[in-house]
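Exodeoxyribonuclease III
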Amino acid sequence: MKIATYNVNGINARLPVLLRWLEYSKPDIVCLQELKAPDEKIPKKAIEDAGYSAIWFGQKRWNGVAILARDLEINEVLRGLPGDPYDEQSRYIEALVGDILIACLYLPNGNPAPGPKFDYKLRWYERLSARAAELLEMETPVVVVGDYNVMPTDLDVYKPERWKDDALFRPEVRLAFKNLVEQGWTDAIRKLYPDKVIYTFYDYFLNSYKRNAGLRIDHFLLSPQLDESLIAGGVDKEVRGWEKTSDHVPVWIELK
């Protein structure tokens, strides 16, 4: 089974790229972030014509997450991250896809830091950790996947000294991610490639993609039931070079 995550940076603006990549990569399950579209503007027919069923949690202009599946039934479990009834941002959705619970997330950026947006990001991490602890208690295998907006270590960022004050790399955020993983999750890409430079995001500015000046901010966390099932993973880096593409690249894993 091939599971992928892709921050599309606007599902309608990037629809040709998304459809081309789906045909190219043929993942079984896909988590999308930053849809930047309300529910009624999601291109459902185009996704179905590509061979995928889907559920989504959209939002006008910003945010938005979706789960797509090919030849697998999707049963929505949860829409919105628990812990704050006043949080109106569309950043989290859960579904049972086949025999696996998929949690798709788009964690807040948090800049500028310090400030209200950074405080919101840290609270969001606390809420995610609480939900993740509940998921670990389930007998169902779980994948918590998406754009976490954190570079966990220096290996995950080009020239880390330039990012020390950024909300994606501040020690509070890296500690929050570390504590989350240490609940009992497996960082899938790092398990496969413990010492390799792998980036999942390249800014549109300063020729970042061609210079390989990127960040690893899109992650797969696997519950213990799936740890031994992980057999492959990687990034479809070339997609970042396509015309009118997202600033993220698709990331994928394979489970036996």
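thats it. Helices lie at 15-25, 44-49, 116-136, 171-181, 188-192, 208-211. The first strand starts at residue 2 and ends at 7. bye
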